[in-house]
Amino acid sequence: MATENAKSGRWRFPVLQGVLPIGASQIPAEIIAGLTLAALAVPEVMGYTKIAGTPVITGLYTILIPMALFAIFGSSRHLVVGADSATAAILAAGLVGIASVGSDEYVALAAVLAFMAAGFLILARIIGLGFLADFLSRTVLVGFLTGVGVQVALGQISGMFGLEGGGHGTFGKIWTDLQQLEQVNFHALAVAATVLIVTVGSKKVSNKIPGALIAVIGAIALSWALNLGQYMHVLGHVPSGLPHIGLPQVPWSTELIGKLVPTAFAMFVVILAQSAATSRAYAARYNERFSEDTDLVGLAAANIGAGLSGTFVVNGSPTKTQMVDSAGGRSQLSLLVTTAIVLVVLLFLTAPLAYLPEAVLSAVVFLIGFDLIDTEGMKKIYRERRSEFWVALITALMVVFVGVEQGIILAIVLSLIDHTRRGYRPKNALLQPAASGTWHAQPVASEVQALPGLAVYRFTHSLYYANAEQFSEEITELVNRADPPLRWLCLDASAVDDVDFTAAETLRSIFAILNDKGIRLVVAQLMEDVGKESRYHFDQLFGRDAFYDTLDDVVNAYRQETGVK
Questions:
Q1: For 320-332, how does the pLDDT look when each residue is reduced to its tens digit (9 = 90+)?
Q2: Which CATH architecture does the domain made up of 429-562 adopt?
Q3: In DSSP terms, which residues pair with 430 in a beta bridge?
Q4: Which of 148, 142, 136 is closest to 417 using CA atoms?
Q5: pTM of the model
Q6: pLDDT digits (tens, 9 = 90+) for 139-187
Q7: For the CA atoms of the chain, what is the radius of gyration?
Q8: Exposed end of the chain (fewer CB within 10 Å): N or C?
Q9: How many other C-beta atoms lie within 10 A of the C-beta of residue 384?
Q10: Are 179 and 200 contacting, i.e. CB atoms less than 8 angstroms apart?
Q11: Per-domain residue ranges for the chain?
Q12: Does residue 43 have a cis peptide bond before it, meaning omega lies within 30 degrees of 0?
């Protein structure tokens, strides 16, 4: 059903939130953006199939039904959903040893993983797990994607050199390539080098020039004219027509699902984090609202479409989103245009793909991987936050040395550890009033007092079991070293949004210690649901008159009671 937007007088539908409303004057720009995305994305998604280990045609399938479904059911006006190198790499790593790469069983299992990722996305929408996206910090994402880039780029060397390749893991593949160097196919190497030069050169001139598409079309034409298939491997027959719609044919069992769950969950986390981050960035750029929950539904629908159409998992793509934005696209209409173009390709233009040298796709994928290596991002993290740089580097090395799936799990763990570390040792402060009436924060070690005998101690984090000991130690040290001796200790609780059971017991213990020393404990700026009205009954323990709304109220009360000026 449609609902009328009273302010604009336009009609807005529960679906197509990323498309409507749209003015007639914007439609030409959306069409141009859709054409641009198709030109840039078609060779790219064919390259992603080399990463995923699926037939080339499945790459085109990712920008047919899945892309259209997100455009219909998502809320972001900018996020482009399609094949992605990170999730493709996780897919390939997860299916190693379960099925032969490129086989019918392998493709069917890739579709099952798309369904499972969709299931996790639906579950996230139902029980509110969208917040998990916030637990992959920008730091670990830079490291993770850099590691994926290194792995993907190095994995394409054999294809560009025309080698048979082989080996497990990044360095296993490199070692195999080195052993096969005498078998280099110089025809394939020359073609790959030409593709690299054309693609990189076009980017130097303008990002809007579809260098990869020009290189692919040129390679197909040369391969057909010069019969390059007799000198190097070419794709061969690529089926035309629409994908078969149906459930993947696999021997369903709890054992199989158990093997696939870790891979599906790793892909789900990447989809959640990368898509949410991209949607937020572009919504902020254009001062627009988007619904993370609605986007979860759109991403789930897109992956269900991927599973039903026999292709692999899709994800929100920052690179494709930037392509559309640079071309002037401001809504999901551009994605629907791209889908229409791919439909035409599938129906009428797959025959020429048979002449495409495999070295061309290896070169395209090599550049995709190379672009993911964020050296500038790593340098910036190193300059600005040295400890977080090591987290990013460890994540990247885990991806390269061990695997993509393990890398994303480590990324989650490191993000949580980093978050816990910040709360475990918060930087607390003593507050001192200035002549202007403002309060200045000083290190706890400074032992400054707001007034003689009054210390105002600000705890800068929620109080919980991990930092309760620091809280106790700092207050005890402050009391023991105070000069002059303290008469009042004020806890500025403005940053304390929660107190767990362990911390509550610590507070009671601190109150008893201070009470024995004749020091009054008062609390300022405490949230209502945290203290006075909580189940811990601090108001009964401290006394209702121990709570103050502002620090100035504390100072006035202290002066009135003690006579200190």
A1: 887 788 778 889 9
A2: 2-Layer Sandwich (3.30)
A3: 442, 457
A4: 136
A5: 0.72
A6: 877 888 788 888 888 888 888 998 887 777 777 888 888 888 889 999 9
A7: 30
A8: N
A9: 9
A10: no
A11: 23-420, 429-562
A12: no
